[in-house]
Amino acid sequence: MRATFFAIALCAGLAASAAPARAGQPVRSGLALGFGLGGGYVSLTWPDEDRGSEQSGMGAVRAGWAIRQDVIVGVEGWVWSKDYEIGSTPEDIPAEIKVWSTALAATFFPGNTGFFLRGGVGVGGGRATVTPPPGDDFPIAGEWSTTGWSLSAATGYEVGVTPHLALGGTLHIVYVGVDDAPFDNVLGYGLTVQFDWYW
Fold first, then answer.
1. What confidence score (pLDDT) does residue 196 get?
2. What rounded mean pLDDT belongs to the chain?
3. Secondary structure class of 87 (helix, strand, coil)
4. How far is residue 174's CA from residue 172's CA, in Å, rounded to a whole number?
5. Angle 28-62-116 (CA atoms, 0-180°, nearest 5)?
6. Sign of dihedral through CA atoms 72, 10, 24, 160?
7. Residue 40 in contact with residue 53, Cβ under 8 Å?
8. Do the Cβ atoms of 58 and 188 come closer than 8 Å?
9. Distance between CA 86 and CA 109 in Å, rounded?
């Protein structure tokens, strides 16, 4: 929860402080690279546990090509990760979880402003490492992974700092179509602070 609030506050602060001094939008032509860090939630389904959504840190990277000043096409990567303990008797069970998505994506800047919309389709999956203590009969143990298809969407706003650098914030929503506990049609969402470069 703290990571999400930190991302929201930092995004708001960047927009508020940079907007008055902004000379214009960055020059979106040619190569585009970016990354974002923040926090968000992912739905996990553990056997015999009702945990709902889990909160942790998340990140996103992208690489693409600006075919116009207001349209970028490329590849977007998204990852969410958490280390925590699953309740058990007589003791808790350590678990490490990662959920990821890689998608072909297009970003559109309506009116060639800082506001953008992004959508993508690709592959995604999850990896789990569960290490129950000796003698515990928890139904999931060991390290394993699963893959499926994914859909991603994002919206946000970026502020031009220089003609080739923009800062902003992004709201991400990612769906990963898998059916292998604890990953059961995973829905992830969250906020990142975004850094983008254009050449």
1. 96
2. 83
3. coil
4. 7
5. 55
6. negative
7. no
8. yes
9. 43
CA dihedral 43, 195, 157, 193 (to 10 degrees): 40
> pLDDT at residue 8 above 70?
no
CA 100 vs. chain centroid, Å, equals: 8
Which CATH number belongs to the domain containing residue 31 in this structure? 2.40.160.20
> Which of 161, 124, 128, 157 minimizes the C-alpha distance to 143?
128
Query: How much is the pLDDT for 51?
Result: 59
For residue 163, give its domain range. Answer: 2-198
- Identity at 40, one-letter amino acid code: G
Dihedrals φ, ψ of 37, to 5°? Answer: -130, 140
CA nearest 63: which of 100, 105, 26, 32?
A: 32
Contact 78, 174 (CB under 8 A): yes
How far is Cα 23 from Cα 29, in angstroms, rounded to an integer?
Answer: 17
Q: What are phi and psi of 140, to 5 degrees?
A: -120, 130
Rounded to an integer, the average pLDDT of 84-106 is 81
Instruction: Please count the structural domains in the chain.
Output: 1
SS3 19: helix
- The pTM (predicted TM-score) of the whole model is 0.79
**CA angle centred on 33, ends 151 and 70, rounded to 5°:** 75
What number of helices (H) and strands (E) belong to the chain?
A: 1, 8
CA 59, CA 98: separation in Å to the nearest integer?
Answer: 11
Return the amino acid letter for 101.
S
